[in-house]
Structure formats: structure tokens, C-alpha cells
């Protein structure tokens, strides 16, 4: 039996991998990687390693979480070195607990290797700080994905509560739901001219950075034809954008 490594691949640029991530990838017999992981990251894998893409949503079959869990368990139990490669940092909206629980229940040893999260990468390429002490002593990472619509057992997130948050708001997976989360905050009293920065594919060759406002963010996505993956930064720190 081998230990499973759940590895953060970072935001995309393979130079932003940690040394430990590179070592785990190089030693793996099986790499199960998310579709958002830049394939240049896989250049560190050994020639005989099995590389399995977990599929893209809306464009063909995507492996269910239970299938991913089972594949990790079976491979590790058979003595294979397994890497579960996730975009960004597995701890941030990466469904990490589901995989850790499945491995623990199967008595499979595992270790999580953190990666650079997309929020940090987006701030870096935009030349701003998420926690500029003049504007924000706090930052909130928020999912724009309406998971509760697919699974009623999950908590429903009230975006309106963030209207009064005294810091920077960072939205992950908020492209398709921009009209919902922005509209809810506006209804709750958030200033329409609150500055917003949309960062598309941060650190990758075709990255784009678009500035807008909270009142216009949903329309900006449509006009600029921006789609997933985007990070959206909301707050006064955006004023530092060159």
C-alpha cells in the first residue's frame, strides 16, 4: 500500500509549482488531474506514468467524485504511487474533505501538498494586494457556484451578507452567477460603483485583466466574452490596479 498525495498544481504557470509538488509528480505511477491543470505541469511525470484527465464539464463525460475516490483507493491499495493533482490549492474550494474522508475510511494513508491559490495569482498579475492595509484588513474567499441547487443538503449562501464586509471580496467560480451575487449585494446596499477586477486565466499566456464596477460586472462578462476560469476581486484594493 502506498500513500496518496493530493497535490496543488497552483494557478497554471508550471514555474509556480512547489518543489514538493514536482517531486510527487515525478514519483507517481498514476496521476489523476483536473481539467484546469495546465498540461505543462505534467512534463515532470515519468514516461511510464499513467495520466488520467478527469474530464471537462459540459464537453463529454466527467468522472463522478465517487469514481475518483475509488480509483485512488484501488491504485494505492495495489501499491501504486498516486497523485491527485488539483488546480490551485486543494484547500480552497477543491472538494478536499470528500477525498480525504474516502481515503481515511479505506485506511489509505495520504498527504496534502498545498499550492498557490488562484486568488493570490490573480492579485499578483494585477499588481495589487488583497490586504492593502490602507483599504482592507481582511479578505473573504467566496464561491459563486450555487452548489445547493444541485444538492439541497448543502448550505445556501446569502451573498447579501457580504455587502457590509470590511475588506476585499474574492469570488471563485462566479462567472455564470455574476448577475446573482452582484445583484444580491447591490440589493443589500453595496455601492454600485464599487471597483471590480476580473482576472481570466491568471499566470497563463492568454491571461486577461478587465476592470469594471459591481453594477456592471455581469454585463462585462458578456461584453468581454469572459468565461471560466476567472477570479473576481471586489473592493477598494482594485484602485491600486495600474
Estimate the helix proportion, in percent. 10-25%
Strand order of the largest sheet: 3-2-4-1-5
* Strand content range: 15-25%
Number of helices: 6
- Domain count: the total is 2
The residue-averaged pLDDT reads 93
> What's the CATH H-level homologous superfamily of the largest domain?
Tetrapyrrole methylase, C-terminal domain
User: According to CATH, what is the topology of the largest domain?
Assistant: Methyltransferase, Cobalt-precorrin-4 Transmethylase, Domain 2
Morphology call: globular
Query: What is the H-and-E element order?
Result: EHEEHEHEHEEHEEHE
Flag low-confidence runs: none
* Count of extended strands: 10
Sketch the major β-sheet.
5 strands, parallel
What structural keywords apply?
242 residues; alpha/beta; Cobalt-precorrin-4 Transmethylase, domain 1; Methyltransferase, Cobalt-precorrin-4 Transmethylase, Domain 2; 2 domains; 5-stranded parallel β-sheet; 5-stranded mixed β-sheet; 20% strand; globular
Describe this structure in words.
- The protein folds into two domains: 4-113, Tetrapyrrole methylase, N-terminal domain (Cobalt-precorrin-4 Transmethylase, domain 1); 118-240, 2-Layer Sandwich (Methyltransferase, Cobalt-precorrin-4 Transmethylase, Domain 2).
- Helix content is 24%, strand content 20%.
- It has six helices and ten strands.
- The protein has helices spanning 19-27, 65-77, 96-105, 118-126, 178-187, 217-223; strands at residues 4-8, 30-33, 50-53, 82-86, 110-113, 139-143, 168-172, 195-200, 208-213, 230-234.
- With 242 residues, it is an alpha/beta fold.
- The mean pLDDT is 93.
- It is globular and about 55 Å long.
- Strand 8 (195-200) and strand 9 form a beta hairpin.
- The chain has a five-stranded parallel beta sheet, sandwiched between helices.
Amino acid at each position: 500500500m502506498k500513500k496518496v498525495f493530493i497535490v496543488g498544481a497552483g494557478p497554471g504557470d508550471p514555474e509556480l509549482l512547489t518543489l514538493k509538488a514536482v517531486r510527487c509528480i515525478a514519483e507517481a505511477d498514476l496521476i489523476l488531474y483536473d481539467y484546469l491543470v495546465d498540461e505543462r505541469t505534467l512534463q515532470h511525470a515519468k514516461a511510464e506514468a499513467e495520466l488520467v484527465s478527469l474530464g471537462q464539464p459540459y464537453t463529454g463525460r466527467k468522472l463522478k467524485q465517487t469514481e475518483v475516490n475509488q480509483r485512488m483507493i484501488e491504485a494505492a491499495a495495489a501499491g501504486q504511487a498516486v497523485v491527485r493533482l488539483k488546480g490551485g490549492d486543494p484547500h480552497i474550494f477543491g472538494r478536499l474533505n470528500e477525498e480525504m474522508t474516502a481515503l481515511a475510511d479505506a485506511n489509505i494513508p495520504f498527504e496534502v501538498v498545498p499550492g498557490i491559490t488562484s486568488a493570490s495569482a490573480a492579485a499578483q498579475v494585477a499588481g495589487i494586494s488583497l490586504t492593502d492595509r490602507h483599504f482592507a484588513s481582511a479578505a473573504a474567499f467566496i464561491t459563486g457556484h450555487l452548489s445547493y441547487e444541485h444538492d439541497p443538503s448543502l448550505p445556501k449562501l446569502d451573498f447579501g451578507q457580504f455587502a457590509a464586509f470590511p475588506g476585499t471580496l474574492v469570488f471563485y467560480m462566479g462567472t455564470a452567477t455574476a448577475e446573482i451575487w452582484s445583484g444580491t449585494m447591490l440589493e443589500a446596499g453595496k455601492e454600485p460603483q464599487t471597483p471590480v477586477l476580473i482576472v481570466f486565466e491568471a499566470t497563463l499566456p492568454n491571461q486577461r485583466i478587465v476592470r469594471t464596477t459591481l453594477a456592471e460586472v455581469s454585463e462585462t462578462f458578456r461584453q468581454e466574452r469572459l468565461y471560466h476560469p476567472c477570479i473576481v476581486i471586489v473592493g477598494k484594493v482594485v484602485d491600486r490596479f495600474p
